[in-house]
Amino acid sequence: MRLRGEDEIDAISNDIELVIKDAMEDLVDRGLPLELLEDMERELIARADRTFLWVTLIIQLLRERAEEGASRRELDGILRSRTVDAVYHALLCSRPNHSKARKMLSIILAALQPLTVEELSTALAVRPDHQTFEESSLPRRPSIRTFEHLEWELVYPFENHIKGLCGNFVRIIQGKVYLVHQTAREFLLDEVSLRESDGPITWATAEEELWQMEQGDGFMDDYDEPSFHKDFADDESTVAGSPSSNWQHSFSLTDAHALLLEICVSYLYLLGKRSRIPGLGLGVPSPKAAAFLPYVAKSWTTHFRKICDKIPSSALPYYHSLCHPRFPGFTAWLEAHGMQITRPVMGGADDEQQDYLVSSFGLEPSENASSRPGQGVTSSAAALVSKSDARVLSSNPGAAQNFHFPVTADENGFVSLDFDRAAKSRKVSSYDEDFEIAMAQLTHWRRQGAK
Question: What is an example of a Pfam family matching this protein (predicted)?
Fold first, then answer.
């Protein structure tokens, strides 16, 4: 008597053989010799071990090599990839642009939902203005990049570009981009990230795979201004993980969230800058990049919360500025988020509205993060004001306590205290206050007011 399980195993083996035979016919059509493929067909069937994933990945590698031209030695090398991890490594190593492939994989790993082809393509075109965890004696500010710069970086056709970066390590199903399989995520993430991972959906569900099979879709130059790129973070330096030659367990989920946070924040700051794109005003995304705004608006605060305790204190105003009503993109991103900004609780002074949003979105570090970088009063405050500006602040500490200092948005959208206006509107006394006290007042003026 045969057991039902044995019947199912036989059925799977038969299905795999059919897939292999069909693939060999396709490879003949692609120009590989029949006699060569007959030997490979026998080897594939013998080594398949009833594993559809391994077979389909091997077939995709063979197809890639067939397009480029391959010797028997090279094809045998593919067949010797006995494990799925070995095939994953071969798939990624075969891609020409490792740095940008790592950037794309980091985005996919950190994304809170599967990104569309348009969203992912726009994210790839954004050059982050900063590295999240980097400490600096200089205040963190947005770059001069505009939506015009972003559009210059978009690579068309979007789908071809995505497939060209990671090949069959990713799938495009119904316009959304997924890792080829759950095991691909496990292959990429380091051990710490695997333990802490909350498992966002970055691979195709069974229903989507079925749709793909029914559709027969299978697996799926620089700007001419010299200063255009020079002041911005290089893609390779902002990607999560180790050098590109080592793929397995080389991605940190913390670094991936940091990268996607910086992409989102840099994108939002584009809303606050004037561009040479005809008809594009402040607070409006360019038509070619607008598809990314809903994801950015709804997700950037989540990416921030996942890593906020590792962000230097001196950098926090850079992120909080997006929540200030004077930020030119304020209304656009909140409307894309879905928040009603006209409700009564949002009334009051601009800084009160900012405090409300910072609190509502959880954009303050946890109280127990005593070891966070730059937590001291001097390091965080020194990044915000100069000694001459501190004179304005120290001359009127009551203003700091009541958080009613005038503010302004600069040409890049950053909202900060307007010391010029403050100096003109009140008489500045001599600098007879302790500098550190003035710094502390400036650093904590909103927090104390909220309490």
Answer: WHD_GPIID
133 falls within a domain:
yes
Instruction: Choose the final residue of a domain: 303, 333, 352.
Output: 303
Q: Which helix (H) or strand (E) holds 178?
A: strand 176-179
The pTM (predicted TM-score) of the whole model is 0.73
Which residue do the tokens 């602040």 mark?
393
d(CA 37, CA 21): 10
* Cβ-based burial of 16 (10 A; exposed 0-12, middle 13-18, buried ≥19): buried
> In terms of domains, do 56 and 161 share one?
no
Residue 219 φ/ψ region, left for φ over 0, alpha for ψ in the -120 to 50 degree band, beta for the rest: beta
The tokens describing 144, both together, are 């001069």
Summarize pLDDT for 163-204 with one digit per residue, the tens: 999 998 999 999 999 999 899 999 999 999 998 875 555 555
CB 143 within 8 A of CB 231: yes
Q: Please check whether residue 212 is in contact with residue 204, taking contact to mean a CB–CB distance below 8 angstroms.
A: yes
For residues 171 and 211, give the distance between their C-alpha atoms in angstroms, rounded to a whole number.
13
Match 């710069």 to its residue by tokens.
149
Nearest-angstrom CA–CA distance, 233 and 386 = 26
Question: Which residue from 163, 178, 57, 61 is spatially nearest to 111, judged by alpha carbons?
Answer: 178
Domain-embedded: residue 368: no
Q: Which run of H or E residues covers position 270? A: helix 253-270
Q: Are residues 50 and 77 in the same domain?
A: yes
Confirm whether 171 is domain-assigned: yes
Instruction: Write out the residue range of the structural domain in which residue 167 sits.
Output: 98-220+230-303
286 and 383 housed in the same domain: no
Tokens, residue 126: 């954004």
**Cα–Cα distance for residue pair 249/25, rounded to 1 Å:** 36
Q: Considering only CA atoms, which of 327, 332, 320, 321 is closest in space to residue 296?
A: 332
Query: How many residues are present in the chain?
Result: 451
Do 191 and 252 lie in one domain? The reply is yes
Residues 196, 121: one domain?
A: yes
Number of separate domains in the chain:
3
Mean pLDDT, to the nearest integer, of 51-67?
Answer: 84
- The CB density around residue 242, as the number of other CB atoms within 10 Å, is 15
* Domain shared by 24 and 169, yes or no: no
Residue 21 has pLDDT above 50, yes or no: yes
* Residue written as token pair 């120290």: 394
Residue 32 included in any domain = yes
Instruction: Report which DSSP code applies to 140.
Output: P
